[in-house]
Amino acid sequence: MTDALDVRRRRVLGESYRLFYRDPVHLVRGEGVWLYDASGRRYLDAYNNVPSVGHGNPRVAAAMAEQARRLNAHTRYLSDEIVDYGERLLGLFDDSLDRAVFACTGSEANDLAYRMAREFTGAAGAIVTANAYHGVTGEIAALSPSLTSELAPTARAVPAPDPRLGAQAGPRFAAGVRAAVDDLARHGLRPAMLIVDTVMSSDGIIPDPVGMLADAVRVVRDAGGLYVADEVQAGFGRLGDGLWGFDRHGLVPDVVTLGKPMGNGYPLAGVVTRSEITSAFGGRYRYFNTFGGSSVAAAVGSAVLSEIADRDLVASCREVGARLRDGLEELAARHDLIGDVRGAGLFVGVDVEAGGGPSGAAAQAVVDGLRDAGVLVSATGPASATLKIRPPLVFGTEHADLLVETLDTVLAGMTERTAD
């Protein structure tokens, strides 16, 4: 059945699509942290943060259905839902961040942030980390080194902070940003923004050291640019220290972009920024999004916020994430295939090493081995050699323990096969 569906899929979908895993999973249902395939087999989902408060969340589904039955209007009509949600969302940020603009995807949000930054600063340059991913729209894909080797002429990529440098990670990162500013100047350009995924997921998951972004932000602001915090993956409590990744670094961004977990699978994203930035942009351009900020999207977004607050999921991420990392550190002490373990809350990276260095092939073997054993993760980083563990926020200690136990078994099997 899976093979036949794959054949049909290849026949009707564009060639740019990719599937996870050597043996793709044919999903038919999800509940909480579990996914079920067509044969009824259950998989522990340790990867998907889009359904942030759990697959099939009853509160979110009820809010979606109830609002859809009543009204689903877009933002060019007056409606209570989008204003109520906007006020609630802005209440979760510093008072200086007083405007919200809604879209459907993180890609759209980052695209809009770049447009706003250019208009507000009068500059065009964009500084990104060396293996960043910020989205798939034309302009943002050209600012995403993980997608392309041909960045936009206005873009400069700088090495991500190296956590092994400890207190020097921040100054070294800032030096790279300063060099990028100088190189832009040599080409007659100024920076409009420094955009950073606050957990640097595609760079290999780099949440620490805390405070490592401050010097770089100061450099770009001194050059007239804005600091854009890409919270599309890190946001909404995942890192276990407040709702936003930039909070951990003691920063207030000029612009924040949101997406993925915002709607628990419903297409909802947004830009949160200062009124003077939206005024500069809105003075020249109209922007609205037919589906971004619809009545249903607002109802869903509000239900997600209620779930995070009422179930105390930020604290849960902190506690369960600490237990998960402790278990993974213990595996690293016993298995040569495991190198560094990094993470904050329920966003964890585990380096996989073979042959004396990072190994994308070995990491993929681990990912496929876990899939075969009923646990779903992925890989990230410049060489795709880092396991990417990013489960729904409702992951519990029992799920963390199951993940560690399963990984232990998979690693032991790989070691035995290598020895044979």
Automatic annotation (TrEMBL):
InterPro entries: Aminotrans_3, Aminotrans_3_PPA_site, PyrdxlP-dep_Trfase, PyrdxlP-dep_Trfase_major, PyrdxlP-dep_Trfase_small. GO terms for molecular function: pyridoxal phosphate binding; transaminase activity. Keywords: Aminotransferase, Pyridoxal phosphate, Transferase. It comes from the Bacteria. SUPFAM superfamilies: PLP-dependent transferases (SSF53383). Pfam families: Aminotran_3. Belongs to the class-III pyridoxal-phosphate-dependent aminotransferase family. This is 4-aminobutyrate aminotransferase-like enzyme. It comes from Jiangella mangrovi.
